[in-house]
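ERR on first pass: missing label on line 2. Operator R.T. fixed the label and resubmitted. Corrected input:
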Amino acid sequence: MTDNIESWLALSMISGIGATRCQKLLRHFGSPQAILGANLNELQHVAGIGEYTARQIVYSRDKLDIQKEIARIKKQKISVVTFSDDNYPANLKSIFDPPIVLYVKGKLLPEDRIAIAVVGTRRPTTYGKMVAEKLSRELAEREVTVVSGLARGIDSSAHKGALSCGGRTIAVLGCGVDICYPPENRALFDEISERGAVVSEFPMGTRPEKINFPLRNRIISGLSLGAVIVEAGHRSGALITAECALEQGREVFAVPGNIFNLGTKGTHSLIKQGAKLVENCEDIVEEIRCLRDVLPVSAPMKSVSEVKLSPEEEKVYNVLSFEPVHIDFISKQSGISINRISPVLMNLEIKGKIRQVAGKMFLRIPEAQ
Amino acid sequence: MLSIGLSSAVLGIEAYPVKVEVDISSGLPHFSTVGLPDTAIRESKNRVLAAIKNSGYEFSMKRITVNLAPAAVKKEGPAFDLPIALGILAASGQLSQDRLQRYIVLGELSLDGSVRKVKGILPIALAAREADVDGLIIPERNRKEASVVERLNVFPVKNLKETVDFLNERNELSSFSIDLEEEFEDRRNYEIDFADVKGQEYAKRALEVAASGGHNILLIGPPGSGKTMLAKRLPSILPAITLDEALETTKIHSVIGLISSGSAIVGTRPFRSPHHTISDVALIGGGSFPRPGEVSLAHNGILFLDELPEFHRNVLEVLRQPIEDGVVTIARVSTALTYPAKFMLAAAMNPCPCGFYGDSQRECTCTPFQIQKYRAKISGPLLDRIDMHIEVPPVKYQELVGEIGGESSLTIRSRVQMARDIQKGRFKKFKSIYCNAHMEAKHIRKYCILEKEAEKLLKDAIERLGLSARAYDRVLKVSRTIADLEAKEKIGSHHIAEAIQYRSLDRNLWM
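pass 2 clean. output:
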């Protein structure tokens, strides 16, 4: 068995061949051991592998230090799932270029088959972050696994939303699973590896290079039944995920935003091209047959006790919307003087009706549906 | 022949008498100055000799020795030019020796014999009043500054010839005096006013609270949002400066030579805004000839540090001690000097390096790591000394809700004054406390009594809004001030609620 893993790892670490060529070689030779044992001539005659690549395989396979990699994996309590394993994610297996090994920190479960990807820009608006958190929480409450990329912005919000209600979430990295990138997501990284899984196809110690991330995106969509793009500018990496999802035959969803905000150009163009517009979790569930079949029709509702508001609080609450507004504006619109408005806002905050964001701006928290 | 004249110099912000002794004896032509002079004094021989010649006096080069006593103290500056010139003239028999010893003389000489302005006149004049002399002879352009001191004869002079004639009783100089009260009244108006600020109701209210309790503040907002404009108007709502305070501040400004020749006294609270490249010595004071730093120049006023995170870290760290003690002590091997530095700190910063974090109009291009690094430049201990964080919104909101012609500074100041009066009564028996900002833990427990509801609210806020424990005492202090503005004995829940709004950096809203 370990022998087996070793050869899978060795195959994955040979430089010059990616997932696609690996698949070609596997179809031809049948097993990774056979590939590693083949001579130059045999390799050269595989369709799609030229002389140059064959030489590279022969050259680099002898230089690999698999034992070192195995030691690192053991030390960091990381498991390796190979393409031939039973617990290799079924969704991922069916894509055109599945990774031949997955490094996993945490656990992949069979339930993770029911997964939705939630991705978006690294520079979100407050609105975007709120939407990502809300959608992921609602999905997780319906026992859907939320897949995302642990990046700054929307990705982080998506993971947080799923974790906030004790749901499962998978983070797919563009670097080795022993590296936390971005570094400020350390706490989130640890929580996910404990309560979900952090996954990567890249060998231990791989730096978060630019070119890794588009590759990583195909795994995000590949693990999921559909991908929700929350906020994306016209050249956002989230659009690559959407493209991958389409190629892999997965559903693509997009959340609309403010048309004046440049950060919604990407999502809006997706909608124009036919992506489904998402307002709430039901929009997603409705579209994916197996979600409908598997999940209880009405999701578990949290009982929301109606909070009583005083007349003043009511007045202020009515001035607020889901777009943040400044305290001066609230005071002006509600007619409550600036030195009297603080207690009203604070009580609303404590009651969980509104939220304060940077710059003395306030906005409503959407009601649970 | 030997002559002895009197002059004076400044050490710290106090003056001490200096005797200028000149000896002319026959020998090879030579001019030497002793008594630890700096370069400016050593060069004075060239100015002095030229001025004497060009004023029409006789001079034949002999062996001249000038001694500035006490010889063990370092002296600096060109203010000894005039007394040295007079000493040479007296030693060469062209001037009455007796009359020379009755006056303290200061002034820099031009080559043509005219007398130029010097620094440190006010402390010197104060010391001169106590000395047993007939008066103080000073450059004409320093006359107003010196005349602040009452019961002292001040004789302004234009040039060397006029001075010599006066001392030889060939002409009469009238002593110069002003009506100090009137002069002070004339200078008490601020040129800028809060009525000029459009909108910004929240920030204005926050500044009113800060001024009422003497709380140090940090203004946070994107570039161009008006942080500097607001801070500049802060002195105009502080309680009017008293004559005693004005004299203290004027004294420090005089040492640096900041008093313009047209003015006698600093009639408004100073507003000092050093650039962020300032060194620690320039901020705190010191140097080989110790001089007061920006913190002392801001004495009784505002020290405004724009772009706070851009200041060098060691500069910000040395700021902690004067904030706490109200004085700066500079220790030297030979002596320790104390400069007063009782100021209110107003600092300003952008929310992130690019300045647009949280702005809905402009996109912020900073990574969270950059933002974190930027914020971390302000150390915890310094942040602990800042009671209020005031967020200033980007311009868009000012345009939406702004109206020209809010309250004038005078109206706001009257409320501030009332709150300060309450505090004065409260802290009568404590020597070092005169406003709420200076309360320590035991005073907070004694004077910040909360109503029941307020207590519950504070507890809720700490639990539910993620307020750090560090904020607790500061919230109490600021809420005490807000209650004082309403002349309330106990602190109510709306006072607490408002005070909590001024602690935004404790709430992780900015991350």
